[in-house]
Amino acid sequence: MERLQKVMAHAGVASRRKCEDLITQGVVTVNGKTVTELGYKVSTQDRIEVNGVPISKEAPVYYLFYKPRGVISAVSDDKGRPVVTDYFTDVPERIYPVGRLDYDTSGLLLLTNDGEFSQRLTHPKYELDKVYVAKVKGIADKYNLRPIAYGMKLDGKKTAPARYEILSVDETKGSSVVSLTIHEGRYHQVKRMFEACGLPVQKLCREQYGFLTLQGLRPGQYRALTPKEVKKLMAETKR
């Protein structure tokens, strides 16, 4: 027997937190009975429906995707813009992105139908490094990037100290390329950190997530994570 929200999350309905919201909203039934209790336990024999639609108990799947620029980190968009799941038409499971990347940001994004996996990787208390490479307007140096190393205030809350490396500087064009490693995930955080240093971002790519990289992939391509990689990611969130 397992808790209802966990079974729903593993079936790919949504993250566990969102599944809890669905339960409390009264749109989930078990064997025809509406259940609003978060601690309710179900077995593999129980019939679970969300808004009248039976959930399918899919096997968990995990993908690493090189998101191109100009693609929404969602499963649908009311404006008709491209979404990440458009690139997974041959995947039968109902997958969704783990966290998000901005519309105009490219790079490494994970997708899964495992709600527990998604929740653990996006929870702020788990400090998985994320490496971004940004092309910024302006000449980067150790003086204007100093606040990044010590932490800076965004919306009144100080960021954790981050690591940076200046990869190149083009004095003729007045631009620089800088690598930034953070483990937080605030709204537009990387862009806002550079902006606060007087270096507005012109182009941004997430090149690494934990130990995972984009090696072997081009924008729009994906690959399945190996069982060893999944296990290692989960282990890293327990540290």
From TrEMBL:
A GO molecular-function descriptor: RNA binding
SUPFAM superfamilies linked: Alpha-L RNA-binding motif, Pseudouridine synthase
Major enzyme class: isomerase
EC numbers on record: 5.4.99.-
Record's keyword terms, sorted: Isomerase, Lyase, RNA-binding
One Pfam family per UniProt: S4
Record bears the keyword Lyase: yes
Descriptive protein name: Pseudouridine synthase
